[in-house]
Amino acid sequence: MLGTCQTKILIADRDMRMAESLKLLLASAADRILIARSAEEVGFALNNDIPDLLLIDLGLAGMETYDLIHRVQQRDPAIPILLTSAAGDPESALSAMNLGAHGYLKKPFEPVELINRISRALNQVCVHRKSGAINAKDQTSAQRYRFLVENSPDLIYALDDHGRFTFANRTLKRVLGYPKGTLIGRSYHKIVYHRDNHKARWVFNERRTGRRALKNTELRLLRKNGGGQASGLPQKSLTVELMAVGLYDKPAKRSDKKFLGTCGVARVVSRRKLSEERLFHERKMEALGTLVGGIAHNFNNLLMGIQGYTDLLLTHCRACPTRDAAKLRHIQDLVQSGAELTQKLVGFACGGKYLVQTVDLNELIIQTLRLFVTKRRDVHVETDLGPGPYMIRADAGQIKRVFFNLFINAYQSMPGGGKLRIVAQPRKMVAGRLLPAGCAGGDYVRIQVSDTGAGMSSDTLDNAFDPFFTTLTHKGNVGLGLAETHGILKNHGGTIRAASVIGKGSVFTILLPLNPDPGPTS
Questions:
Q1: Alpha carbons 479 and 243: distance in angstroms, whole number
Q2: CB proximity list for 42: less than 8 A, separation 6 or greater
Q3: H helices within 446-480, ranges in order?
Q4: CATH dotted code for 155-268
Q5: Largest CB tally within 10 Å, which of 161, 298, 413, 477?
Q6: Tens digits of residue pLDDT in 383-434
Q7: Which is the CATH superfamily of the domain at 8-147?
Q8: Dihedral class, residue 442 (left if φ above 0, else alpha if ψ from -120 to 50, else beta)
């Protein structure tokens, strides 16, 4: 017996007394010893209780020894076969050895020689068995880790010492939209957003190890042709949080170490970043609304005082020169302009939701368009208002003001004329997705107002809804149209987003909750 390695020997000899003697002699070398007197019994043993070693006499009855060896080799080529023979036919023994037998003993043989040969053969069997178990365990472990790496929701990669991909898991290929195998051998610069290339040199292609290696560093990655289907995000780039570490052939503290490459893990945080930006924008607009509302209130009080004193002067100055009366009336006109400006500020701060009724949104859009196109023949208007009607609870006048502001904004971006398109469709919305904090999910109507104007840069988009922000410097434009629009929609439980491409135009997307209870219709 060989430690914890359980072994079996099959003795095949037509001489039963010889077989029993061999069994007693080898009792200490194996855990179990079986005896077969014919080739048929050997075949039965191979089918039911596979031995670890065969000791076969060349004169075994019932089958040519060569056929028996061939059958054993087919069953398991790793089973050692020792041949014995009293005839002393070296040619037969050599032929059997060529077929796969492991050794040959001529009867009579020394018991010590037989035991030594059997022990060596069984030792090899145990070593092979343990090696196979270790290899199987390693293979199982490798399969398990490969499954975890390939199916991880994170992007996992490895680079060589020149920054070329040697491995990229399925998630990285799927999220970025690259077919299988196309990244291997390519530089990491291929998937890094161009503005982050310098940063990626020290982060994506990290050379440091241990605590010195950067962790949770944000980086932008490019998506092939707009990105993979699995990411569910429309941007051409994705923001990821990256952790990477350098790999060396020797411990990092050794001065003679050689850099082998980098391995890293990246987690897509684009949705989280988008949510953070929306939350920041909502809080910023809320703070601005509070500030502007307070200023508008106090400013309105000042205007009322100026208006009152101007009216008194005009009343008591009937004998004043015409020139002085005209100046007083000019003051009244300026006060009226200031009051209109204050009204816009209040619309931004409070939303201007005064007379709420159940109204048909499509009808409001059509009415506003009729007013807009009266003197703007150079703008081609297209509408796709869907199945309709879309009944909402709103102040009809304020919703018209929203659309008029957007139409005017589109018109001003197309000084040479262009196309204005309005599309309305019902949408089932989920709270938290594309809706600001506090807006419940449910049935909404989505309105998209798009133009073919000059478009806006990313910096302009970031500030488009801020009060007093404008890219137009001509008289009368104070930059409150979109700010007022944002305030009105927010107060109606809706939201507005803007997207734009320089030279191709802009798209404003509005979401307003549909009214489940029709109620009185205006």
A1: 44
A2: 10, 12, 36, 54, 56, 60, 63, 68
A3: 458-463
A4: 3.30.450.20
A5: 413
A6: 998 887 899 988 888 888 889 889 988 888 888 888 999 999 998 887 766 6
A7: Response regulator (3.40.50.2300)
A8: left
Residue 352 predicted with pLDDT over 60:
no
pLDDT band at 448 (very low <50, low <70, confident <90, very high): very high
Which residues make beta-bridge pairs with 385? none
Alpha carbons 13 and 341: distance in angstroms, whole number: 114
Q: Which residues contact 302 (CB under 8 A, 6 or more apart)?
A: none
Mean pLDDT on 206-231: 72
DSSP state of 471: S
The 10s digit of each residue's pLDDT in 340-350 is 677 666 665 55
49 touches 6 (CB < 8 A): no
Q: What is the pLDDT of residues 495-518, one digit of tens each?
A: 888 998 888 899 999 999 988 665
Q: Are 383 and 369 in contact (CB under 8 A)?
A: yes
Torsion, CA 440, CA 500, CA 281, CA 293, rounded to 10: -90
Closest CA to 376 of 341, 337, 340, 409: 409
CATH superfamily of 356-513: Histidine kinase-like ATPase, C-terminal domain (3.30.565.10)
CA–CA gap between residue 249 and residue 447 (Å, rounded): 60
At 346, list the tokens. Answer: 């209040």
Q: Strand locations in 252-410, DSSP E?
A: 259-268, 356-360, 379-384, 391-395
Could you tell me where the beta strands, DSSP code E, fall in 254-316?
259-268
Q: How wide is the angle at C-alpha 467 spanned by C-alphas 462 and 470, nearest 5°? A: 70
Read off the tokens for 84.
Answer: 């014995």
